[in-house]
Specification:
The protein is of the alpha+beta class and 549 residues long. It is built from 15 helices and 10 strands. Strands 1-2-6-7 form a 4-stranded antiparallel sheet, with no helix packed on it. Strands 4-5-3-8 form a 4-stranded antiparallel sheet, covered by helices on one side. It starts with 41 loop residues before the first strand and ends with a helix.
Length: 549
């Protein structure tokens, strides 16, 4: 609220302050005293006002009280009347009251606060009545701020009003930002329960209906009569689980499609980066390089380095994505083992058996509920006379008996299915034990093969024959880099990991070339097999120091 000072208030809930503190008025302060103000002669009908000497210092004034509308005027001529005073000071604004003393001073109250500043301007003027030179007809005016109760009371009222407006504004702002309260939930009745059951079946109204159902259950609305109705509503709520799982699967499929599109876009970007780097490499050859100026060469060199950095970063990102896919594929391949298939089949059969048990339990509960209803109806039937209502109850009893018979038949069929599933589970377990025994035999065979291979390797190491020397300086450089890489990997590294590292240095090298080079130097590099079965892996190690020893 403009003009409201939150640090000032009486009876507004804010800490009160002394109203006599300087600078608390709402009117801006007068101009600084350093600036000289040129005053002129003021002519009135009954008197004349002569300005003071401009070289003299300005007249002093007291601190302005808050909400000041009253001024003290001293130094009036003895013969000055109230009419003359009003004639002089009404030029400053509307005057509401003049209180003149028998001595040479008075108090003037204006309608507004800014009029007081105009009256202060007249301080220091010499007032002369008419053209008389008598001392009683002249005097030097001294105008100063006056402290009046009426001014202070009006200022307090104005501050209270501004404080009320500020509180109202804050309350409106809080009401606007406050979150809306949740809708009221109706009380339970059979009609409302029927409507809620229909809403639970609707996908768009499910979230609203499930909150109502939860509130009813927490309130304790479930009793012997309403148990069946609540059970049917809970069952319809459970039917939405499959819909939610389907939605989750659809979202996962969308995520996989987005990953695939991102990978394709990244490969396209990487190929374009390769083409740009090829252009820069062609430009740095001597044929074209000699024709560029020094500044152009510098720019081409900077661009080439920047493009290579971006290309390497994108290639690393793409390699990471491919590694993740390979790990997922390896997990899928390991999942193709017969033992894991049997585990999956066992879990599926167990899940089916659990679902059938749940259905069996639900049917038993329904049967118990129907029996309870039948007992209630029998009790009501014994109490009431044979009327049309009793006939309708007999029909209901017959209908319930028929439904009970049908449910018993369903229970029998479900029990037969359970027995069949149990027999299938036993057969699957027998097959699993058989396959596990086969797997143990295969693992023993693999261990024998590994021992034979290791013996052959030892024989090759001890043999006098050695591979031919290095063919080129490039092979010597590759051997040095590979030796350094394998030396910092004491547990060895597979050929794919070594090839991914070497490809960053030379993109044209292949994994077969590296493997052939390693096999040609059995004294420097040796190959070991780690793991068993599906986790069997070849690892190369650096063994040159062992040969020297």
């Amino acid at each position: 609220v403009p003009g409201f000072d939150p640090s000032l208030s009486m009876m507004t809930g804010i800490t009160p302050i002394n109203p006599m503190i300087p600078g608390m008025g709402l009117v801006p302060p007068p101009p600084p005293t350093d600036v000289p103000v040129v005053k002129e002669i003021i002519h009135c009908k009954s008197c004349t006002l002569f300005p003071p000497n401009p070289n003299l210092p300005p007249p002093s004034t007291r601190e302005r009280p808050p909400g000041c509308k009253t001024v003290f005027v001293g130094g009036l001529p003895e013969n000055a009347t109230e009419e003359i005073i009003q004639e002089v000071f009404e030029q400053c604004g509307d005057i509401t009251a003049i209180r003149k003393s028998k001595k040479n001073f008075c108090h003037i109250r204006f309608a507004e606060e800014f009029m007081v500043d105009k009256a202060i301007y007249l301080s220091g003027y010499r007032m002369r009545l008419g053209s008389s030179t008598d001392k009683k007809d002249s005097g030097r005016l001294h105008v100063d701020f006056a402290q009046a109760r009426d001014d202070f009371y009006e200022w307090e009222c104005k501050q209270r009003m501004l404080a009320r407006e500020e509180r109202h504004r804050r309350k409106m702002e809080e009401d606007r930002l406050r979150p809306p309260s949740p809708p009221a939930i109706m009380h339970y009745s059979e009609h409302e329960a029927a409507l809620l059951a229909e809403k639970l079946k609707d996908d768009s109204k499910f979230s609203e209906a499930i909150t109502v159902l939860l509130t009813w259950i927490e309130r304790g609305e479930v009793n012997r009569r309403s148990a069946n109705q609540f059970y049917s509503m809970v069952q319809s709520a459970n039917s939405h689980v499959r819909r939610l799982m389907n939605e989750k699967a659809a979202h996962e499929q969308e995520m996989e499609q987005a990953k695939e599109s991102f990978k394709n876009a990244l490969t396209g970007i990487l190929t374009q980066f390769e083409q740009i780097v090829a252009v820069f490499n062609a430009s740095t050859r001597q044929k074209a390089w000699d024709h560029f100026s020094k500044a152009q060469r510098k720019n081409i060199d900077i661009w080439r380095k920047h493009s290579e950095e971006l290309r390497n970063a994108h290639s690393e990102q793409l390699m990471g994505i491919r590694r993740e896919e390979e790990m997922e594929m390896s997990d899928d391949d390991s999942g193709d083992n017969p033992s894991k298939k049997l585990r999956v089949d066992d879990s599926a059969l167990a899940a089916q058996a659990y679902a059938l048990k749940e259905e069996n339990d639900s049917l038993r509960w329904q049967l118990d509920a129907y029996r309870n209803e039948v007992e209630l109806l029998k009790q009501e039937k014994g109490q009431l006379f044979r009327t049309e209502e009793s006939l309708t109850k007999d029909q209901q009893l017959q209908f319930l008996q028929q439904t009970m018979q049908g449910m018993q038949q369903q229970l029998l069929s479900i029990q037969e299915e359970l027995n069949n599933k149990k027999s299938e589970l036993e057969q699957a377990k027998e097959e699993q034990t058989h396959t596990q025994a086969m797997l143990k035999v295969l693992q023993e065979k693999e261990i024998n093969v590994l021992t034979v291979a290791l013996v052959n390797q030892d024989r090759e190491k001890n043999s006098e024959k050695r591979s031919p020397g290095l063919k080129s300086e490039k092979e010597a450089l590759l051997i040095g880099i590979i030796s350094t890489f394998l030396h910092v990997h004491p547990f060895g590294a597979n050929i794919e990991y070594l090839w991914s590292y070497m490809q960053q240095l030379d993109s044209r090298i292949s994994a077969n070339e590296i493997e052939m080079l390693l096999m040609r130097l059995p004294r420097m590099f040796k190959q070991e097999f780690t793991g068993v079965g599906a986790t069997l892996e070849k690892r190369w190690k650096f063994c040159a120091f062992e040969g020297i020893k």
